[in-house]
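Query structure, 324 tokens:
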């Protein structure tokens, strides 16, 4: 029968207590201490001192044996399923350290499973975005283009009193066509595939600046190294969601989008606004941003910006250091 951590801990505690009692018994047996009947006050003090020493020694040994439980409890209390890498220090001696090692291994398996599931979901989401964007461009976009060309032909032949109204309809159709194209670009930015992340973020900032919302300034470094297609898509989507939140919820007048790579090879994305500050509760958009960051082993923080507003900061480690 193999010894489990629970049975090993039982025998360890039993052995500690047994050892303390054996030592105490030997001290009483071979020592000069005697106990009278009735007990004398001096003898009572000696017995109480011996009992205190036994209890203190027992407490010290048990505390050392059960020390990993405190760290294990603290880890379970602070554990966040979307922040990977939080572990207890491995190694050490004793049976509870085996429990710690197994708990760390369990977290590794859970994070690996979650990363795989998240990757499948996000891949399916991107494929659906791509399909919808293609249909918007090919079906609705082309249909509106045909309507626009037909209206232009009708306007040229219509009486002047009707032509003015037709021009208004023509302008409405043209605006709708522009909006369809803008939505298609947001669903699946072709510029990201064709020209890369720098051009895609520049176009994204320009697109949001032209919507009548906050003025978006950009500082995007070119020539980034070692990101890869998956990380580029994650950076783009988090920048897109951050600007969408600024436009919809912050009430900001200005926002800044920056992307840079430091000397260690880390790529840092920052979206800062001068709006009302971080959200009081986490919505589906922020939850999705955290899932995407976890997928590539990046660190995402959302907090107050200097001088007010909100700062979204994404730090993507070099490819060799990523967990995802």
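Result returned for the query:
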């Amino acid at each position: 029968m193999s010894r489990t951590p629970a049975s090993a801990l039982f025998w360890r505690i039993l052995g500690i207590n047994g050892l303390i009692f054996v030592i105490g018994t030997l001290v009483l047996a071979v020592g000069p201490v005697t106990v009278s009947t009735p007990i004398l006050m001096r003898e009572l003090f000696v017995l109480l001192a011996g009992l205190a020493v036994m209890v203190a020694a027992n407490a010290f040994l048990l505390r050392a044996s059960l020390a990993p439980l405190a760290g294990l409890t603290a880890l379970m209390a602070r554990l966040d399923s979307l922040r990977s890498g939080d572990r207890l220090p491995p190694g050490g001696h004793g049976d509870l350290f085996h429990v710690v090692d197994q708990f760390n291994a369990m977290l590794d398996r859970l994070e690996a499973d979650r990363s795989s599931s998240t990757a499948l979901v996000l891949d399916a989401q991107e494929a659906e975005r791509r399909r919808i964007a293609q249909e918007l461009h090919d079906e609705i976009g082309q249909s509106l283009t045909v309507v626009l060309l037909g209206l232009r032909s009708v306007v040229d032949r219509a009486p002047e009193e009707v032509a003015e109204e037709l021009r208004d309809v023509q302008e409405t159709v043209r605006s709708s066509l522009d909006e369809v194209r803008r939505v298609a670009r947001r669903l699946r930015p072709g510029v990201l595939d064709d020209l890369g992340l720098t051009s895609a973020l520049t176009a994204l900032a320009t697109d949001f600046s032209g919507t009548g919302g906050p003025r978006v300034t950009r500082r995007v470094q070119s020539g980034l190294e070692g990101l890869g297609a998956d990380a580029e898509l994650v950076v783009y989507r988090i920048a897109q969601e951050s600007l969408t939140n600024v436009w919809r919820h912050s009430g900001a007048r200005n926002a800044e989008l920056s992307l840079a790579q430091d000397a260690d090879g880390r790529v840092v994305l920052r979206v800062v606004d001068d709006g009302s500050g971080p959200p009081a509760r986490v919505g589906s958009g922020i939850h999705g941003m955290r899932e995407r960051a976890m997928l590539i082993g990046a660190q995402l923080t959302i907090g107050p910006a200097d001088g007010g507003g909100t700062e979204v900061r994404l730090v993507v480690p070099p490819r060799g250091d990523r967990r995802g």
